[in-house]
Amino acid sequence: MGFFKKLFGGLTKTATAVTSGISAIFTGGKELDDEFYDDLTAVLLSADMGMEASERIIEDIKKEAKKQHIRTGEQLKEALAKSISDILHDEPPTFDNGDIILIVGVNGVGKTTAIGKLANYFKLQKKSVLLAAGDTFRAAAGEQLNEWANRAGVRIVRNAEGADPASVVYDALTSAKAKGEDITIIDTAGRLHNKSHLMEELKKIDRVVNRFITGGTNGVQGVIPCYKKFLVLDATTGQNALNQVEIFNDAVSLDGVILTKLDGTAKGGVVVAIKQQFNLPVVFVGVGEKLDDLLPFDGLGFSRALVGLNAD
After folding, report:
1. pTM
2. Which of 82, 142, 216, 233 could form an S-S bond across to 158 if both were Cys, CB 3.0 to 4.6 Å?
3. Could you give all domains of the chain from N- to C-terminal order, each with its CATH number?
C-alpha cells in the first residue's frame, strides 16, 4: 500500500469529522461571513487543532477568500490544506550512522510497540539497529522489548529488572560503537510528572548519552553520532497530549514526536496544535497494527488527507 493511501486510511476518522463539519456549514456560493468563520473554528477545534492554530488558520482562510473568491467546497479544502501544511512544514529528520534515539513517554501510549516498528523501519532502510532496554522499572518491559527485537530482527542490550537504567544505556552505547551499529534506540520507563524519581532517572540517562558523545566516544568510523529525543504520544488523548509535550520537553528538550493510534481517533488535528504551540515536529505516525504501519510524517500529505483531498 502506498504511503498516502496508508496515511489517508489512518486519518479516516479525523478526516470524516472535518469534512462532514465543512459540509454542514458551507454550501457553494455562500458568503464567508463571521458566522461561517465561527462555525469553521468550531470544526477545527473539534478535531483538536487547538485555539492558537485554529485562529491562525482562520486568518489564512480570510486572506485566501479575498484573493480567490472561494465559492466551492474544493476551494475551501485546498485553502485549508495549504494553511495547515504551512504550519506543519518541516524538513524531515535524517538518520546517519551511529545515531542515537531516546524514546520517552507515559505508560499506555504504545511506546514499546513504536520502538519495535521504528526498528523495523530502519531495518527496511538497510540500517543495523540496536535496542537498549532502559525500562528496568516496569515488570516484563525487557521481555516485551526483546519480543519486538526478535520480530524486527535486531540486537538488544538488556539487564535484570531493577538494574540501573543509565548503566544499561551506557553498556548499549558501548556495544553499538564496538559493533558499528547504525542506529541505537533507547527505551525508557513510562513516567508522569508526579513521579519525580523517574523523571530524575530520565534526566540521568540523558546526561549519560550526552557524556558518551561529548567525551570523545565517537560513533561509526569516528563520526560523532547525532542524538535525537522523541516523545511517543497517543493520538486518542487529544489536547491532553499537549501537557505531556510540555513536561517532557522541559525535562530533556525534545526533538520531535511520534504519534501513535492515529487510526483510532477523530482528534488527529492535535498534530497541528503540537507544531503551532511548541514548534515541535511530528516525525512518525502510527496508522495501524502491522509492523510496517509506522510512517515517516509528511506535512503536506497529512494536511490534504485531513481535509479529504487526494495527494497532489
Report:
1. 0.90
2. 142
3. 3-88 (1.20.120.140), 99-297 (3.40.50.300)
